[in-house]
Design brief:
The protein is mostly helical. The protein contains 2 helices and 2 strands, in the order E-H-E-H.
Length: 92
């Protein structure tokens, strides 16, 4: 029997993340080859991946920097993060 207490949606859980959402930043052109869309399956060059990770570490702070820009729920409202929960977990 399926529980009806929780909505079944994919969730990403991490203590190390960078999310810009509607406050996106520009990345150097040499990393644009890493950009894909939803559901994209890729096999990137490991040197490019490692270089990008080092660029992120040097230029970006971990955490939440914006809200989802274009992710409406079934009622047409924008989904929002539960900031209190993120903060209490030390993620925002």
């Amino acid at each position: 029997m399926k529980s009806t207490q929780y909505v079944e949606e994919p969730v990403f859980i991490s203590d190390k993340f960078i999310y810009y959402g509607d406050n996106r930043i520009n990345i150097p052109a040499k990393y644009l080859c890493l950009v894909g869309g939803r559901g994209t399956r890729v096999n990137h060059n490991e040197k490019v991946q490692n270089s990008f990770i080092e660029w992120l570490k040097s230029n970006c702070e971990l955490g939440l920097h914006g809200m989802p820009k274009d992710n409406p729920d079934k009622n047409g409202h924008k989904k929002t993060f539960h900031l209190a929960s993120l903060r209490s977990a030390g993620l925002a």
